[in-house]
Amino acid sequence: MEEELINTIKTPIFSHITSEDLDHIYEPSEDSFLLIDALEKDLDLIRKSKPLLCLEVGSGSGVVITALGTVLGSQCHYISTDINLHACRVTKETGKLNGVDIKAVCTDLVTDVMGDVKGAVDVLLFNPPYVVTPSEEVGRGDLEYTWAGGECGREVMDRLFPSVDSLLSPHGIFYLLVLKENNPADIEQIMAKLGFTCTCVIARRTGQESLSVLRFSRQK
Amino acid sequence: SLKPNKHRNYEVYLLCLSSVIHYYFHTAAVTVLVVALKFHTIFLTIIKRMKLITHNMLTSKGMKNVIEGFPLKIQAEEVRNVDIEFDREFISRMVPKLDWNALIFAAQCVGHQEDLPEILPEGYENDDDLLKKLHHILLEVEVINGCLECPETKRKFPISNGIPNMLLNEDEV
Hints:
The complex is a heterodimer of chains A (220) and B (173). Chain A is α/β, with parallel strands linked by helices and 220 residues long.
């Protein structure tokens, strides 16, 4: 009996998030939904790679990893990290509310996570703090963490790029959400030097922001 | 159900990484409780625990002067068993992504060492017995309250509501 594969990703329920929660975590917004749309668009590709382990860095409310979890199901293992303990808790709740079991770890990017096991992650997701801000604002307070990206909005995501090679499995895929001001062409070059090809999966202009989701996979 | 007796036998090997001192842990625990009470009631009912599959992926290497930082010692105040549906394919595909020695160590910490072989045997994908034991130790044993201790610095990382907190202080990085 053939199982019917779902080809669309329904936006996860996140009505459990209270206004108090929002004092500490990033509210699911256009950028979160764009990343989900990108995953939906790439669903066939993701499925073909037969993923087992999915990791979202900076999960915030958890909507993105949850969305992925609702279509890939229990055949996969879902891990999330966030520097904010509230976000870790909310991520687990969002997962639970939508039937996805997420193992949340509170840490800075991927520090102390997946350190010794190389090449284990099949799908890596990152919606970074991408807003261009003064450098001093990076990593401050609760909410500033969620958007302050420093110079060119790149200071946080730049810290993850060197780890991508050891994180990703041979057929692993890395999805990164960026702003035009983050200079995607420059990111493409940096990742190319690390051995990854770049494709723009989806792009959208929402209000002031020109957002796009980049997909990185290993060069053949 | 809790197994405190079996657990005490393995007190020596309790999991690593956790809050720096016992005192800190208690302070943190009180803080977490106070913070928890402030939140939506749903928070109090969704109390999750840390599974050993998560432990396998955590290190303390981010700390300065730490060479290996792995595996972390599990210090579990409470350990619980749950029932999770056995997915043979999932477990056998997961094996290559795990550090076997760390898994054995973790199993010792929570009192399940006798179930797993010291070395991963060849042909494990076809050994249903082993896969079922793996399934149990990875997914069905949960650390409720406790900490993870760095093998080198003895620095303790707390686990609260199943979420390991690996955040380092500025002076530790």
